[in-house]
Amino acid sequence: MARDILKTLKDEHDQVREMFEQVKDTTDRAVKTRVELLDKIENALIPHAKWEEQVFYPAFKERADREGLQTHAEALAEHHAVENSVIPEVHMAEPGTPEFAGRCKVFGEFVDHHAKEEEKTMFKMAREMFSAEERAQMDEDYEAWKASPDAEKMLVAEKSKAASGGLAAQATRQ
Ligand SMILES: [Fe+2]
Ligand SMILES: [Fe+2]
Q1: How far, in Å, CA of 90 to CA of 101, rounded?
Q2: What is the pLDDT of residues 80-98, one digit of tens each?
Q3: CA of 97 to the centre of ligand 2 (A)
Q4: What angle do CA 146, 149, 150 make, to 5 degrees?
Q5: Which of 17, 57, 110, 125 is the most exposed place for a label (fewest CB within 10 A)?
Q6: How far does residue 29's CA lie from ligand 1's centre (Å)?
Q7: Exposed (0-12), middle (13-18) or buried (19+): which is 140, by Cβ within 10 Å?
């Protein structure tokens, strides 16, 4: 079967959904498991989101009509909300607490909602905008980027930003 960036992105959504399900099954005593799962979620989600923002969304925007532009704006705003508020709030909670469980649940709900919108709207539009060859090429480019030192550096920087609390921490400390 030919490679297709839209299939890869959808598969990654499903993998992350599965990880959130596993977090839901943990108790407040499962501190180590929660920390490991959050780490796994970030390792999967951050490169996915950054590549969408830097490559896929701009390519989509270039060919989008009025409706597509709105979809693009909506997706980007959701990324920003998760990056600047939802993830930092998870990090501000102690993993062995109901606060952590609650915030992680919200994180999972945001991601699921966003992923659904991409799958139902954006990817549907993208299937019309990009040829099979273009989608296969994007898929190869994405795989190569994920394995690059650039992607690794970005992940380290983004994770440390999330762990230090981002905008949400600043707001709470005021
Ligand atoms: Fe996204
Ligand atoms: Fe996505």
Answers
A1: 9
A2: 999 999 999 999 999 999 9
A3: 29
A4: 75
A5: 17
A6: 32
A7: exposed
